[in-house]
From TrEMBL:
Its main location: membrane. It is found in: Cell membrane. PANTHER family: CONSERVED TRANSMEMBRANE PROTEIN-RELATED, INTEGRAL MEMBRANE PROTEIN-RELATED. This is Type II secretion system F family protein. The chain crosses the membrane at residues 12-29, 75-101, 227-251, 263-283. The keyword Lipoprotein does not apply. Residues 129-246 form the Type II secretion system protein GspF domain. It comes from Streptomyces yanii. The keyword Iron does not apply. InterPro entries: T2SS_GspF_dom (IPR018076).
């Protein structure tokens, strides 16, 4: 075609891509709805689990990748900064930040797992006390409590076997107490040993132990609530340089260009990054020291 209103090849390619994408979306959504409607009307399997269609699979896959690989989000942010600043330095920094962020996420996940296990030990003590007061034998009470709470983790098989076949239950509990988060099982092992050797009441000892563990958890939660303000201050101080860059860009300056394309800017960027890292580590160490026992 000729003339001023002719459509060029790039525009035709854009239109064709849009039409193909729309057709694919319509087929994916409409086909799934038609399949579900036919299944309900003719098969009557409303209560059966429906197979995942394409978009559901993509959504679940993306959600799983986001939960398991959140550290890789550093790369899109680095690419955006590299495009805005017209430099490869943000990409290099983002690649170096991936293992550091992964290590921090793993440490946080481990801390949460330890807290979950500590709460499970408290629930285990309460469950054993309830089973003992209901008239069950100590071994049977421990078996029921272990299955109900799942507090042992990898040591559950050894403790259950010792309780079922009359083995060294206190020894198995003591070995399980060496795992992170299960330190409270050392008190359970001590109560079990005293009850077996000295004939003392196991329910009374575990009841007092449960109260002590609950008091310790309340103290830890109160301390964490008091230190929440300090952690907020650390986060605000860490974001101040980013806020400064945004204000500079809003005022019409080019902070990324100065930092990434001039010797003085590169020196300032290096020194500022080192000071920022040192400040965050120092502040985090102070706050973590306050969280300690």
């Amino acid at each position: 075609m000729t003339g001023g209103t002719a459509v060029g090849a790039p525009e035709w390619a854009t239109y064709a891509s849009a039409v193909c994408a729309g057709a694919a979306a319509w087929l994916m959504v409409g086909r799934g709805r038609g399949t579900r409607r036919a299944r309900v009307l003719f098969v009557g399997s409303v209560l059966e689990p429906e197979p995942l269609i394409g978009r559901d699979r993509v959504r679940l896959w993306c959600a799983g990748m986001f939960r398991e690989r959140r550290e890789w989000l550093c790369l899109p942010v680095a690419l955006l900064l590299a495009v805005l600043g017209e430099s490869v330095l943000p990409v290099v920094a983002g690649a170096l930040a991936v293992p550091l962020v992964r290590r921090w996420l793993r440490k946080r996940a481990g801390r949460q797992e330890r807290e979950r296990r500590a709460d499970a030990v408290v629930a285990l003590c309460g469950a054993v006390v309830g089973e003992l007061r209901a008239g069950h034998e100590p071994g049977q009470a421990l078996l029921v409590a272990v299955r109900g709470t799942g507090a042992m983790g990898a040591a559950e098989a050894a403790v259950s076997a010792a309780a079922r076949f009359g083995g060294d239950v206190s020894g198995a509990l003591g070995r399980a107490a060496c795992e992170p988060g299960l330190e409270g099982l050392a008190g359970v092992a001590a109560c079990w040993r005293v009850a077996v050797d000295g004939g003392a009441g196991l329910a009374a000892g575990l009841d007092r132990l449960e109260g002590a563990l609950r008091a310790e958890r309340r103290r830890r939660e109160e301390l964490r609530a008091q230190l929440a303000g300090a952690w907020s201050t650390v986060a605000v101080l860490a974001l101040l340089p980013v806020l400064g860059l945004g204000l500079g860009a809003a005022l019409g300056a080019d902070p990324l260009g100065v930092l990434l394309h001039s010797p003085a800017g590169l020196v300032c960027l290096l020194v500022g990054g080192l000071l920022e890292t040192a400040g965050l580590c120092w502040a985090g160490r102070i706050v973590r020291a306050g969280e300690g026992p």
